[in-house]
Amino acid sequence: MGFPIERPRRLRASAPIRRLVAETRLASAELILPLFYREGLTEPAAIKSMPGVVQHTRESLRRAVADAAAVGVGGVMLFAVPAVRDADGSGATDPDGALNVAIRDVVAEVGDSTVVMADLCLDEFTDHGHCGVLAPDGSVDNDATLLRYREMGIAQAAAGAHLVGTSGMMDGQVAAVRSALDDAGRSDVGIVAYAAKYSSAFYGPFREAVDSALVGDRRTYQQDPANGREALRELRLDVAEGADMVIVKPAGSYLDVVRAAAETVDVPVWAYQVSGEYAMLEAAAAQGWIDRDRAILESLLGIRRAGAGAVLTYWATEVAGWLKAGR
Ligand code: PBG
Fold first, then answer.
1. Angstrom distance (rounded) from CA 179 to CA 182
2. Which residue, judged by its Cα, is nearest atom 6 of ligand 1?
3. Taking 90 as the threshold, does the pLDDT of residue 210 lie above it?
């Protein structure tokens, strides 16, 4: 028997050598924390399917964002649950609507120390729960929705958002919001485009988090999980329409799409580790079936290794705290 000529194990022999040859690292600046504000709450409300995540009051939202900024989290992505909903999602464009109030509060609290992003989509604000307004036949009306998104982008910019996150998967939404912002003199506000957003079962817990009113599904606008090449088309369109960065969502089951995106477009590519990914790992860890902290780090490292420059994750503050402590 001959001896092996190549011995890859040499590079794994000690912690220092493993550290020296690690190809991917996590940094708090590349973690983005999604947060939920719920209008009218007096106490933070637990989200049962996302243990450790809450719907915030105005006060607790400010505290959570300050905590995130203190450990160096790269940005926050804000969602809001309004007290009242209607067919057009009018709360989304009301300067005193739930999300615009949350943006203003958060910018006032930490505006200079981290990046404040807001979800630009109607689903939290409509009484039917769809991401756009409906045509008389009940279908989601793409172009009528674009007009609402334009107004929503302007309202979020006025509230102080640094980046608006177009997440409704309407055709032409990035171009519509970009031109609305530019026409309003807000070329300084960027667009983080959910370019490849799949119609995913992994959004399940999020529906509880925002008390979603949705009946049915979003398959006529979000992408079919079967398709990868179609994601490249969506990415190409969003970049051509003016996206400043693009998001692939969910993350864990779409790492091939993250990789393809990173190799295809020349703007930053981010990935969103969604509510169901969070819930599954927390649930297994609570049973003692996996090592929670190691699994969290491994899941994030995998997403970064696939090519994501930054990751939206509900663990952002916690993990940034670990990194700060040198773990
Ligand atoms: C829609 C939106 C959704 C999520 C973020 N934005 C839900 C959906 O498309 O049904 C899901 C995020 C998560 O599951 O963590 N505005």
1. 5
2. 167
3. no
The DSSP symbol for 168 reads S
pLDDT band at 41; cut points 50, 70, 90: very high
Q: CA Rg, the chain, in Å?
A: 20
Is the separation of the CB atoms in 310 and 270 below 8 Å?
Answer: yes
- Supply the pTM of this predicted model: 0.97
* Per-residue model confidence as pLDDT tens digits over 140-152: 999 999 999 999 9
pLDDT bucket at 224, cuts 50 / 70 / 90: very high
**pLDDT value, residue 175:** 98
- Residue-range domains of the chain with CATH: 27-324 (3.20.20.70)
User: How is residue 177 written in tokens?
Assistant: 């919001």
Q: Cα(267)–Cα(237) distance, rounded to whole angstroms? A: 13
Which of 208, 274, 281 best tests ligand 1's pocket when mutated (most atoms within 8 Å of CB)?
274
Q: Give φ, ψ of 120 to 5 degrees.
A: -105, 90
Contacts of 154 (CB under 8 A, 6+ apart): 180, 181, 184, 186
Asked if omega into 51 is within 30° of 0 (cis), the reply is no
Does the beta carbon of 223 lie inside 6 Å of ligand 1?
no
Give catalytic status of residue 324 as yes or no: no
Cα-to-chain-centroid distance, residue 250: 9
**Residue 269 neighbours by CB distance under 10 Å:** 26
Query: E strands, the chain, where?
Result: 31-38, 45-46, 54-56, 75-81, 115-120, 163-166, 190-197, 245-249, 269-272, 310-312
Can you read off the two tokens belonging to residue 300? 């994030």
Per-residue model confidence as pLDDT tens digits over 54-104: 999 999 999 999 999 999 999 999 999 999 999 999 999 999 999 999 999
pLDDT at 64: 98
Say if residue 38's pLDDT is above 90: yes
- Amino acid symbol at 18: R
